[in-house]
């Protein structure tokens, strides 16, 4: 339940029901005072900004947070999607729309392709090693035989000369 309160004409404090006094001036203006102290200061024509316990003084000396004017409009940051290096914006959007099943299927297929590629590389290396080793062995044997024959000829010529 909301209680209707008035504001003191001098101190600007809240006046709850059953408290305070009303004063009607000669010109018909209505003044509400919280207590006799406020009424006396007002009657003496003392400015409420000069007395420390009043709301006016607190506002003037920046002791109270005041809301002057309307609330400041907050500028909301808009999310802007940009393309990342290596992938276009359309590709990003397409991937977001995909469901999990298709993503898993694509990932499995990519994994299978990678395994197949690696297996092919391994097989190619094995066949290359086998082919290279047998041809190398044959070449090495031929080279050693040729070297032995050349060494025997040179050795025979040297014996004959002596």
TrEMBL record:
Alphabetically list the UniProt keywords: Ribonucleoprotein, Ribosomal protein
Query: InterPro entries annotated for this entry?
Result: L24e/L24_sf, Ribosomal_eL24, Ribosomal_eL24-rel_N
GO molecular function terms attached to this record: mRNA binding; structural constituent of ribosome
GO:BP terms for this protein?
A: cytoplasmic translation
Q: Which Pfam families match?
A: Ribosomal_L24e
Please note every region of biased composition (Basic and acidic residues).
95-123
Q: Does the keyword Ribosomal protein apply?
A: yes
Q: Ranges for the Large ribosomal subunit protein eL24-related N-terminal domain?
A: 4-67
Region Disordered: start-end pairs: 95-162
**Polar residues biased stretches:** 124-134
Which Gene Ontology cellular component terms are annotated? cytosolic large ribosomal subunit
Per the record, the similarity remark reads: Belongs to the eukaryotic ribosomal protein eL24 family.
What PANTHER family does UniProt report for this protein, alphabetically? 60S RIBOSOMAL PROTEIN L24, RIBOSOMAL PROTEIN L24
This chain belongs to the protein called Large ribosomal subunit protein eL24-related N-terminal domain-containing protein
Q: Which organism is it from?
A: Paramecium tetraurelia
């Amino acid at each position: 339940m909301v209680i209707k309160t008035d504001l003191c004409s001098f101190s600007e404090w809240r006046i709850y029901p059953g408290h305070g006094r009303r004063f009607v001036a000669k010109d018909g203006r209505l003044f509400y005072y919280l207590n006799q102290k406020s009424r006396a200061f007002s009657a003496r024509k003392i400015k409420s900004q000069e007395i420390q316990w009043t709301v006016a003084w607190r506002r003037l000396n920046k002791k109270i947070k005041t809301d002057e004017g309307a609330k400041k409009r907050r500028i909301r940051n808009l999310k802007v999607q940009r393309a990342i290096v290596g992938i276009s914006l359309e590709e990003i959007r397409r991937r977001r729309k995909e469901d999990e099943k298709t993503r898993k299927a694509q990932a499995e297929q990519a994994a299978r392709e990678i395994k197949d590629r690696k297996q092919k590389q391994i097989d190619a290396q094995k066949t290359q090693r086998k082919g290279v080793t047998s041809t190398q062995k044959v070449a090495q044997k031929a080279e050693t035989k040729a070297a032995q024959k050349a060494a025997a000829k040179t050795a025979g010529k040297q014996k004959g000369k002596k």
